[in-house]
Write a structure and sequence with these properties.
Helix content: 10-25%
Radius of gyration: 23 Å
Largest sheet: 7 strands, mixed
Structural class: mainly beta
CATH architecture of the largest domain: Sandwich
Strand content: 25-35%
Number of domains: 3
Number of helices: 7
CATH class of the largest domain: Mainly Beta
CATH topology of the largest domain: Immunoglobulin-like
Bound molecules: copper (II) ion
């Protein structure tokens, strides 16, 4: 009896709260603190407080993309409101708090759009495929602001959007973006998601409003968490560094004890390898990078590529633009893509229709307002440049298709699979369970990390003057197409230079 009284009181309190909601006007608000208790030094970490504060801002709205057969397709999607130059270079748009807080301007395209006018001017029709790439490091705090700029092609819709980090160990369901259990963002509203980075790996994210619709329409992107191991000092033993956990202080002078789940009671440690880092600065150019906290150096890579397997159903996108009911059960993809592009756009790194694109630049699309915008920023041409000392390429593969499984295969160079769904393949005794294969099948919502290693003598004939070209392609042969075109789709080149 007392229970029901309390629940009735709770209910009336809830009704009161809801009644006040319309009075609280929606507004854009961007948050990126210069310092926090966890990171008193702000964007740069210290030995006592490793990691830093990272920020990124995105718009939720609509836009257009160009398919490999030349057709333009309507998107519900996300576009970059910060780090725009990085995004256009195919890089993550994530920045330090310091860089983010230098406002967007004509001379600083990487700054964040803080003012409502800038958010609307940059955000409307800014949808990209894939959604803006994000990358943080373990020990970081990440502040991600989503501003909903509305859908100019569908003024009848009042679509909310969210950000859901799929398969990510999130501290709070409030920041998980599942609207049933959290907040959803209205038009003209902003929301700043807050994340820590508990486990390195290849993750992805999407909007969680009517998922089959908003995912099919394009609200999907990738997210990388880079391992603590990247910060190991020169000449420090990786296994010992992981065990003592304080990677920024060789020999553990601060006396910090192991707080990392990877070293809890781990005896024996994995076979040790000595780091060849040249600096303790986080990921400087040319530095050694690892995909995971492996302790033995086995996930080292020289160059990384996001490989997002996906597809579009042009009929669904057409009715999505033209006020018609969408036939969910009839959804059937006809365009098959790697990171938003079908072959040959996957290997074309100079495509643009404005004449202003940069080398290795994005694919541009002429939008309904007559403006040409960067729509597909990620070239999927895999280059391993041996003259620059590169031998190992990390492919961060995720399947974000709504309707199909995909099998991808390589010819010539095998794939070394090192991780599945953001987890290193290793047994409880510390043995690596990596395997070589030339074909990998993923369903929607799965990811895998693969290393292409061309260091062996098998590739000795591939030189800068006589490069070798291999292929990454799907063996679902009907996916090697761009709608009515019979050659294209999910395929790209691996160039060993
Ligand atoms: Cu959405």
């Amino acid at each position: 009896m007392s229970n029901s009284i309390w629940s009735r009181r709770g209910l009336s309190a809830l009704v009161l709260c809801l009644a006040t909601l319309p009075a609280a006007a929606q507004s854009f608000r961007v948050q990126c603190p210069k310092e926090t208790k966890l990171h008193p030094a702000g964007s740069s970490g210290t030995d006592a407080h490793p990691g830093g504060i990272k920020c990124q801002e995105i718009a939720g709205g609509d836009g257009f993309a160009t398919m490999a057969d030349g057709n333009q397709i309507y998107l519900f999607g996300f576009g970059p409101l910060s780090g725009r130059d990085y995004i256009d270079q195919g890089l993550p748009g994530t920045q330090s708090a310091e860089d983010f807080n230098k406002d967007y301007s004509a001379t600083n395209a990487n700054g964040a759009a803080i003012e409502p006018a800038a958010i609307m001017n940059l955000g409307v029709l800014s949808a990209q495929e894939p959604a803006p790439l994000m990358a943080i490091d373990e020990d970081d705090e990440f502040f991600l602001t989503l501003s909903n700029v509305g859908q100019i092609m569908r003024p009848d819709l009042f679509e909310q959007h969210t950000v859901h980090f799929h398969g990510y160990p999130n501290a709070s369901s409030f920041f998980d973006g599942v609207p049933d259990a959290s907040a959803a963002i209205n038009i003209m509203g902003s929301f700043t998601y807050y994340y820590t980075a508990p486990d390195a790996g290849t993750y992805f994210w999407h909007c969680h409003i009517t998922p089959p619709e908003h995912l099919q329409m394009g609200m999907v992107g990738q997210l990388f968490v880079r391992p603590r191991q990247n910060q190991v000092h020169v000449g420090v033993d990786l296994a010992t560094a992981l065990y003592t956990s304080n990677l920024k202080a060789p020999g553990n002078p601060d006396g910090v004890t192991c707080s990392d789940i990877l070293c809890t009671g781990q005896t024996p440690l994995p076979a040790a390898a000595v780091s060849t880092h040249v600096s303790n600065v986080l990921q400087p150019a040319g530095d050694v990078k690892y995909a995971y906290n492996d302790g033995d150096g086995s996930t080292k890579y020289d160059v990384e590529y996001p490989i997002q397997l996906m597809g579009f159903d042009p009929n669904f996108h057409y009715v999505g633009m033209t006020f018609n009911p969408e036939a969910f059960a009839d959804m059937k993809d006809k365009y098959f893509m790697i990171s938003g592009r079908g072959y040959p756009d996957t290997v074309n790194t100079y495509v643009n229709n404005t004449g202003t694109g940069k080398p290795d630049g994005p694919l541009y699309t002429l939008d309904s307002d007559g403006a040409s915008r960067s729509s597909q920023p990620l070239p999927s041409l895999i280059k391993i440049t041996r003259s620059a000392g590169q031998t190992r390429a990390l492919l961060r593969i995720s399947d974000l298709n709504v309707t199909e499984f995909h099998t991808i295969a390589t010819v010539g160079v095998p794939m070394l699979v090192i991780a599945d769904n953001a987890r290193l393949l290793r047994d409880m005794a510390g043995r690596n369970l990596y395997y070589k294969t030339n074909s990998l099948t993923l369903g929607g919502g799965e990811s895998a990390d693969v290393i292409l290693d061309v260091s062996s003598s098998d590739y000795a004939t591939c030189t800068n003057t006589s490069p070798c070209t291999f292929y990454l392609y799907t063996t679902n042969l009907d996916h090697l197409s761009n709608d009515a075109e019979n050659f294209g789709g999910m395929m790209t080149e691996i160039q060993v230079l």
